[in-house]
Specification:
The chain contains 15 helices and no strands. It is flat, with a radius of gyration of 24 Å.
Length: 313
């Protein structure tokens, strides 16, 4: 089959997916970049469209360097993304390994339970954590600690100034971590189950203990999945804000220490009415995500994994 004919067939089958990418990713990105260079406010398109300016980027730079609240947003984004990424990837890997070594009937129940946070609607899931971390005596955590005698008065974990920013960051990481680990668990578990059983049996016969089996046999064969989950979670955490938005709005966490850059973009666009600033902030977030994604591929050895294996067949 000629190369041109083969390319046409490939494009034909990929065209639906490519059309979705263009409509839902490429065009919105182009619009965001364009709006970032306009002073658009209050959705007044007639008044501000067509006016090219860099004032939104200059304004953001000034806020980051001079506004203590926006500085908190930047710090929260860095800490939240880094810590939750570690929790999601390592937590997902540990859950998958635990499920892999269980009996199938027990493993199925175990995996199903860990999927509940992801299956639960965002509002319901956030509401459960709202009551868990509630700062009054009716809060689940406070009630439990009071009954055990570990504290003598209710603690506002996410809003008490003496506990910030650690209290707020811990709540955000816990709430998002329970959702994130299930994704890694599914990917890693499916990868582990695809490893030929004969290799594991042979390693056991050769005297490998569980730690050696994991280190020498299992982990080397799921490198692709580790890279995929790490980068996926990294980009996802940079842009996630649904649970964080609800916790912030309900007053469970400090308003500024509980705001990530993605939530800041949302608030600027739909609460402050500064769509030009929001578009500029979103463009910066996309650029940071692209740089971090490419950097992660390099650090995780993606190029090396793409090379043809050495040796003769």
């Amino acid at each position: 089959m000629a190369d041109s004919e083969r390319i046409k067939q490939i494009l034909f089958f990929l065209s639906p997916a490519l059309a979705l990418v263009v409509v839902f990713y490429i065009i919105p990105l182009i619009l965001a970049v364009y709006l970032g260079f306009t002073p658009l406010r209050d959705w007044n398109l007639k008044a501000y469209m067509g006016k090219f300016t860099t004032q939104s980027y200059e304004y953001l730079f000034y806020l980051v360097t001079h506004d203590p609240d926006v500085s908190k947003v930047v710090k929260t984004t860095i800490v939240f993304t880094s810590a939750t990424l570690i929790v999601n990837v390592l937590g997902g890997l540990l859950l998958a390994l635990a499920a892999f070594f269980m009996e199938e009937s027990v493993s199925l129940t175990y995996r199903s339970l860990w999927l509940l946070p992801r299956l639960t609607p965002v509002a319901v899931y956030s509401l459960l954590w709202y009551y868990f971390f509630l700062g009054s005596g009716e809060g689940t955590l406070n009630s439990l600690l009071l009954r055990l005698g570990l504290i003598d008065h209710p603690i506002a974990w996410g809003t008490d100034p003496s506990l910030q920013p650690a209290g707020t960051w811990l709540i955000l990481i816990v709430v998002n971590g329970f959702v994130g680990v299930s994704f890694g668990m599914i990917i890693f578990y499916s990868a582990l189950k695809s490893i030929p059983r004969e290799q594991i049996i042979a390693a056991r016969i050769d005297g490998a203990n569980t730690f050696q089996l994991i280190r020498r046999i299992l982990l080397p064969q799921i490198r692709w999945h580790l890279v995929y989950v790490t980068i996926w979670q990294l980009l996802s955490l940079l842009t996630t804000f649904a649970h964080i938005f609800l916790l912030t709005e309900w007053g469970v966490v400090d308003r500024w220490w509980g705001t990530t850059w993605a939530l800041y973009v949302f608030n600027e666009a739909f609460s402050a009415g500064e769509q030009g600033v929001a578009a500029a902030a979103a463009t910066i977030l996309v650029a940071i995500g692209a740089v971090l994604g490419l950097l992660s591929l390099r650090l995780l050895g993606f190029k090396k994994m793409m090379q043809e294996p050495r040796g003769e067949i």
